[in-house]
Recover the amino acids of this structure.
């Protein structure tokens, strides 16, 4: 390569994926394997003590998974990444690395419903307390901070509202507070937005969505921005203090700019166990090679569908940042200028019943609980993904009773529009 | 030389060319970064000579420890500095008095002393600051991807194996394992 930095699509294909060193295989092989032999007793001891690079056990690392991680890190502009079983697993391991019982973190309400559940309910049993704020009101984020705050959590493009968050503004607040900013970049993907460039310290992904892109594999990822001082405040003992299970090693001192990713691996994955399967890592790797092509088509199709819906007399409203009149159009132009994503919501004048009728009548679009597939998907959040939330929480999460969520695929856009046309009736 | 951003070829050239490395600030504590880096570089076939006044005359990882650079009874190719940025200045000046002079001064992650770097540069010595040779070797070798690291390096070439047959040794070719 020349000194010119490679472009996104080149990285998507080549980053992390040199020919296999053992076999010469050009495409990354599926290492459907659990364990790896040691050269000798000393080598084994060195691997377990993190004194040498090398494979030990697939719960902690796997050669196929490693290529996936290196590719994600390169695309996001991070120092290192860690792949896990799911996006939820990624979030669990991130907070396990940051939080102690009794600690707090600030999250904005405009999140994927599954994250709201995880934060409100499951995290509570670990003694990790979420304090909610509003992604559109920076003062609400400031006010939610306390001496116990360990992190701020946002989504770059929020699910399901289609809101684009002012990442740099939140990053400033996090920096002043001396806590890391964690950004869920699932709906944007690094093709549309790289949160680390805007001041984020940690990026998390559900790889199940656009990154893998084909609706065939679960996966999650944590990306280390390498831009946070984990020792300065003394608030992150797992990273800054000697670790008894590794002979007193201090992870931040030892691993510097990739300490967060390493700590998530050698403590979070080792002890909590949510490893990604090598087969899934392979499917996601294959999908990621076309990430740029797919995302652009997803976004182009989504804009055309949103424009069509906004002209439809039976549609009450459309929330898509790609539309010039949308409240988040300026933020979309700033943070994700190539496209506003492919997940957005609209409401029918007929309300709840009309929404249920549309999801019951579609023939091409699939009625299911996922986003980021090659196929166009449709769901009625109030009756499915967000059904555990109260009416007030539904509204704040952008999932009121009349809301229909679309995840626009990469089919011919005329066919997507024709199906919606017959379903809306 | 722009010390904020080194070209991959510059780092590769250094890792290829040096064989004997004096490590100033080598520690006997097995979880200190200097211990880990010394062990790694030894495993890759470099001859690492530890320098630490407090351990002078003892053996560390099978290697004799010297109190000062000028006490080392053989020519050294590179000085690797595991000390503070301030302390690095005097170490560079000491290195400049050696005969023959080392060809590379390397300051570890977080260690940076631009004035000292300028003095070394004026003497024709290559300088690397705020980097770790273990990490850079790992990036060049592809081992970095084993831990999900972003090496910044793309390659369509098959990476060669270390001559020991046990570890990847990348596009660095074969480094002599005799020490």
């Amino acid at each position: 390569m020349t000194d010119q930095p490679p472009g996104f699509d080149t990285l998507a294909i080549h980053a992390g994926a040199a020919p296999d060193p053992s076999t010469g295989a050009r495409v990354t092989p599926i290492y459907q394997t659990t364990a790896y032999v040691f050269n000798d007793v000393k080598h084994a001891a060195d691997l377990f003590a993190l004194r040498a690079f090398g494979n030990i056990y697939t719960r902690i690392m796997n050669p196929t998974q490693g290529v996936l991680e290196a590719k994600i890190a390169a695309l996001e502009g991070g120092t290192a990444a860690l792949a896990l079983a799911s996006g939820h697993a990624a979030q669990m391991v991130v907070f396990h690395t940051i939080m102690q019982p009794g600690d707090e973190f600030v999250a904005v309400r405009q999140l994927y419903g599954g994250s709201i559940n995880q934060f409100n309910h499951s995290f509570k049993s670990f003694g990790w307390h979420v304090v909610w704020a509003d992604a559109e009101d920076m003062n609400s984020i400031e006010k939610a901070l306390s001496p116990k705050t360990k992190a701020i959590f946002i989504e770059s493009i929020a699910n399901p509202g289609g809101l684009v968050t002012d990442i740099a503004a939140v990053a400033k607040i996090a920096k002043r507070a001396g806590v890391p900013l964690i950004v869920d970049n699932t709906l944007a993907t690094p093709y549309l937005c790289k949160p680390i460039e805007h001041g984020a310290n940690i990026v998390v992904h559900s790889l199940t969505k656009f990154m893998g892109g084909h609706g065939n594999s679960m996966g999650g990822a944590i990306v280390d921005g390498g831009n946070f001082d984990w020792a300065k405040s003394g608030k992150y003992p797992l990273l800054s203090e000697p670790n008894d299970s590794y002979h007193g090693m201090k992870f931040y001192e030892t691993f510097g700019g990739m300490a967060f990713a390493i700590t998530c691996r050698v403590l979070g994955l080792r002890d909590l166990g949510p490893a990604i399967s090598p087969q899934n890592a392979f499917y996601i790797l294959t999908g990621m090679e076309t990430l740029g092509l797919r995302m652009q088509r997803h976004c182009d199709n989504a804009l055309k569908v949103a424009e069509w819906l906004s002209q439809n007399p039976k549609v009450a409203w459309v929330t898509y940042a790609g539309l010039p009149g949308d409240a988040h159009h300026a933020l979309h132009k700033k943070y994700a200028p190539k496209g506003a994503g492919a997940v957005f919501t609209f409401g029918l004048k007929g309300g709840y019943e009309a929404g249920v009728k549309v999801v019951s009548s579609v023939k091409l679009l699939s009625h299911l609980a996922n986003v980021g597939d090659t196929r166009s998907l449709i769901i009625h959040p109030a009756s499915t993904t967000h059904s555990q939330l109260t009416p007030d929480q539904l509204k704040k999460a952008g999932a009121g009773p009349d809301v229909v969520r679309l995840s626009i695929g990469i089919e011919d856009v005329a066919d997507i529009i024709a199906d919606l046309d017959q379903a809306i009736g | 030389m722009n010390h904020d951003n080194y070209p991959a070829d510059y780092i590769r050239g250094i890792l290829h060319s040096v064989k004997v490395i004096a490590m100033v600030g080598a520690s006997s504590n097995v979880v200190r970064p200097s211990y880990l880096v010394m062990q790694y570089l030894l495993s890759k076939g470099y001859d690492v000579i530890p320098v630490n006044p407090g351990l002078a005359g003892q053996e560390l990882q099978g290697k004799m420890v010297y109190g000062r650079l000028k006490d080392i009874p053989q020519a050294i190719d590179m000085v690797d500095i595991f000390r503070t940025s301030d302390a690095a200045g005097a170490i560079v000046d000491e290195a400049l008095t050696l005969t023959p002079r080392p060809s590379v001064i390397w300051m570890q992650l977080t260690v940076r002393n631009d004035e000292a770097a300028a003095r070394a540069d004026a003497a024709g010595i290559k300088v690397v600051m705020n980097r770790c040779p273990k990490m850079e070797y790992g990036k060049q070798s592809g081992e970095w991807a084993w831990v999900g690291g972003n090496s910044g390096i793309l390659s369509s070439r098959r990476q060669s194996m270390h001559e020991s047959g046990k570890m990847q040794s990348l596009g660095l070719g074969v480094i002599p394992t005799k020490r």
Chain B touches chain A through 36 residues (CB under 8 Å). Chain B has one domain: 8-172.
